[in-house]
Amino acid sequence: MLVDSAVYINGVRSHEVEPGSGFTWVGLLDPKVDEIQDYQQKFSLHSLAVEDAVMGRQRPKLDVYPRHSFLILKTVMFDTETSRIVVGDIGVFINEKVIVIVRHGDAIPMRSIRADLEQHPDRLKEGSTAVLHEVLDRLVDQYIDVAWNLQEDVESLEDMVFDDEIPAPSARLYTVKRELLEFRRAVYPLIEPLNRLASSEVPHIDAQFAPQFADVRDHLMKVIDDVNTMNDLMEAALHANLALIQVQQNVDMRKISAWVGIGAVPTMVAGIYGMNFEHLPELQWKYGYYIVLGALAAISAGLFRVFRKNNWL
């Protein structure tokens, strides 16, 4: 679906195309093959890049073709209701005169980017590379927001692991760790394209933007460092949670064993005296029944005291 298409001359949106001036910015959302083929023919887009842009679900990368460069980017959004991340795709075809942005999913609002840039003609005047830089900058800013939300989840779960009153759910720990891995998988491959853009050696890209791309790369590296730190914390929290569960299970087993030991004595004595024989020791004593009951109570009480003293009960 075509979201917007316009020509910008001297940073101003124009409906008239002057030969050799300005650049064209096309925005597409979840386009079908026939929709993008029109732009493929019009702007000489490479068929392999078009295929990647239509299919989506590609690893972030930067490919250079004779008539344009092509980038695959990942959008990431944090769903606060489910504490899950939502990943989308952006394909960017770019040269000095054209930038075509193909978006899958609605994780990053391109309309707001276009509207903001149109309010700053001095930036749009710098050409299609200025649009690419703005998209990458917004994208990494969004990564920072997602990392912040994930960090809150990690810190909350870390506190729960060591809180005796609030048991940390193991399933939730695994879920957050999986979200961290998915987030890292989405953003980490972007380092290589940004390194190339910062080197000012990519065809069809204005070399004067190399410092800006380097700044975006530095922000991305900070996000990746934070994700790696959170992943290590979750790994430690998982091990700590499993260790605490094992400790609690050992405590429970000790308590069970202690009560079994207390119950074993009267069970054994009652079993012996419950046998159907005529001659057993002390069977004819007048107070034998009471003596046996008293002995059982005393032994059981003694065992209880011993176990209690050793923190088994």
CATH fold category name of the largest domain:
Beta Polymerase, domain 2
Order of helices and strands: EEEHHEEEEHHHHHHH
CA gyration radius, whole angstroms: 35 Å
Uncertain ranges = none
Q: Supply the CATH superfamily name of the largest domain.
A: CorA soluble domain-like
Beta-strand content bin: 15-25%
The CA-CA distance between the termini, in Å, is 69 Å
**Average pLDDT value?**
83
Q: Please count the beta strands (DSSP E, at least 2 residues each).
A: 7
Main sheet properties: 7 strands, mixed
**Structure classification:** alpha+beta
Q: How do the strands line up in the largest sheet?
A: 2-1-3-7-6-5-4
* Share in helix: 55-70%
What sort of overall outline do the alpha carbons produce when their principal axes are compared?
rod-shaped
CATH class of the largest domain: Alpha Beta
Number of helices: 9
CATH architecture label name of the largest domain: 2-Layer Sandwich
Folded structure, characterized:
- The structure is a single chain.
- With 313 residues, this protein is α+β, with helices and mostly antiparallel strands.
- 57% of the residues lie in helices and 16% in strands.
- The chain has nine helices and seven strands.
- α5 (128-161) packs antiparallel against α6 (170-187), α6 runs antiparallel to α8 and α7 (191-198) packs antiparallel against α8.
- The longest helix is centred in the last third of the chain and has 64 residues, at 210-273.
Key traits:
313 residues, alpha+beta, Beta Polymerase, domain 2, Methane Monooxygenase Hydroxylase, Chain G, domain 1, 2 domains, 7-stranded mixed beta sheet, 9 helices, 7 strands, 57% helix, CorA_cytoplasmic_dom, magnesium
